[in-house]
Amino acid sequence: MLSKRCRGGFPVETTVTIAAESPLSTKGTYSPQPMGFLRVSISPAAAIADGAQWHLRPIEEWPNPEVWHNSGETVSYPAGTYTLVFKSIPGWNVPVSKTGTISAGKTLITSGSYNLAVTPTPTVTPSPTASPTATPTPVPPGYLKVTIYPSQAVSVGAQWRLRPVGSDPNPTIWNHSGQMVAYPPGTYTLVFKPLEGWNSPNEVTGIINSGSSLSTYGLYSSQ
Q1: Is the residue at 28 inside a domain?
Q2: With 0-12 CB in 10 A as exposed, 13-18 as middle and 19+ as buried, what is 76?
Q3: Is residue 44 classed exposed, middle or buried when 0-12, 13-18 and 19+ CB atoms within 10 A define those classes?
Q4: 161: domain range?
Q5: Which of 7, 42, 47, 199 has the most beta carbons within 10 angstroms of its beta carbon?
Q6: For 4-8, 23-27, 207-211, which range has the lowest pLDDT when averaged over its residues?
Q7: How large a percentage of the chain has pLDDT more than 90?
Q8: Residue 45 contacts by C-beta under 8 Å, 6 or more apart in sequence?
Q9: What does pTM read for this prediction?
Q10: Predicted confidence band of residue 4 (pLDDT cuts 50, 70, 90)
């Protein structure tokens, strides 16, 4: 007895019986396997620069970590149902996996957007009121670190600074991307340096707490 087990464009499974001293011949016919195409765009550019990629796997099968594709790449797949997964990279939240169908002869276009894993704003804790006769105690500063994206904006002078709420910014005090700066506790507005050919990130208002470190980011976009 001979059994052939095939899938896709291969011949179907066939069972035959071989009799003693009796020649037997059979045949199998291969057919082209229907193929479809998938193109996935990944954003933002900073995530792509850090290694963001995508991969398809059949339903309920684990992904092959060696087969990752770049943003914008068009890849052919046998027609069927798949799950789109995205590569984990440090410092970024991965897009949610998607399940869909690749149809023969058609190109499916989709996208995935990574988000920066930003440290949450610390909870404000009111300071106790000092006694009128107590000796003033120096208040430790708080710290802020701001990372600027993309690297092209940083290379042409993108910077940041803090100003107290209601005050005009001092254009002479600009800080570099990734720089950790100490500030007295209080409420501030984070502003970004204007650049020719770039849209600056929106201003953000928040609180610097004594002894706390806060990290955030700003994303410039080209005009």
Answers
A1: no
A2: exposed
A3: middle
A4: 142-222
A5: 47
A6: 4-8
A7: 31
A8: 149, 150
A9: 0.43
A10: very low
Query: Strand, coil or helix: what is 181?
Result: strand
Q: Across the chain, how many H-helices and E-strands are there? A: 2, 18
Classify residue 189: in a domain, yes or no.
yes
Helix (H) or strand (E) segment spanning residue 39: strand 35-43
Distance (Å, whole) CA 146 – CA 180: 7
Report the alpha-carbon distance of residue 91 to residue 161 in Å, rounded.
23
Q: Which amino acid, residue 147?
A: T
Q: For CA atoms 93, 123, 191, 158, give the dihedral sign.
A: negative
103 shares its domain with 64: yes
Q: Clarify whether residues 51 and 85 are in a common domain.
A: yes
* 24: in domain: no
Closest-CA residue to 41 (of 68, 84, 73): 73
- Give 3-state DSSP helix, strand, coil % of the chain, rounded to 5: 5, 40, 55
